[in-house]
Amino acid sequence: MTSNIVNLPIPSSSAQQRPPSQVAFQRPELSLIMNVYGHMVSNGDWKDYGMSFLKDRAVFAVYRKASEYPLYRIEKTPALRNKQGQYSVIAPGGLILKRGHDLKAVLRVFNKQRLKLK
After folding, report:
1. Are 99 and 81 contacting, i.e. CB atoms less than 8 angstroms apart?
2. What is the mean pLDDT of the chain?
3. Euclidean distance between CA atoms 89 and 105, whole angstroms
4. Is the N or the C terminus of the chain less surrounded, counting Cβ atoms within 10 Å?
């Protein structure tokens, strides 16, 4: 009696082999951002927002008016997770106001004097 040993391929999850096709904010992250956004809208500083989910980053842009350029951009860039931190708040000219690993700490930049915009 002879027996043949056949190696069967082990099925693997395709999500483990390739990165996601786009980066998005998770529900807790979006909750923190919307909390800050709600406070700024109630103060009359911000009027509108837009979200972009790109291949390399997710962007939450806030506007004073819908037709203007973004006042601030809150970005999540997972490629920077092990470096400076994946979260950042960026001013209109491209100046990074705050960057870090913890979104809650990064969003505290809006608490300082509530950024007098007027």
Report:
1. no
2. 81
3. 11
4. N
Residue 10's pLDDT band (cuts 50, 70, 90): low
Determine whether 108 is exposed, middle or buried from the number of CB atoms within 10 Å of its CB (0-12, 13-18, 19+): middle
Strand pairing partners for 61? Answer: 50, 73
Query: Which pLDDT value is given to residue 8?
Result: 64
Residue 26 CA to its chain's centroid (Å): 8
For 87-99, b/e burial (b = at least 16 CB within 10 A) is bbbbeeeeeeebb
Q: 13: how many CB neighbours lie within 10 A of its CB?
A: 6
The candidate with the shortest Cα–Cα distance to 107, out of 24, 5, 28, is 28
Phi, psi dihedrals of residue 87, rounded to the nearest 5°: -105, 140
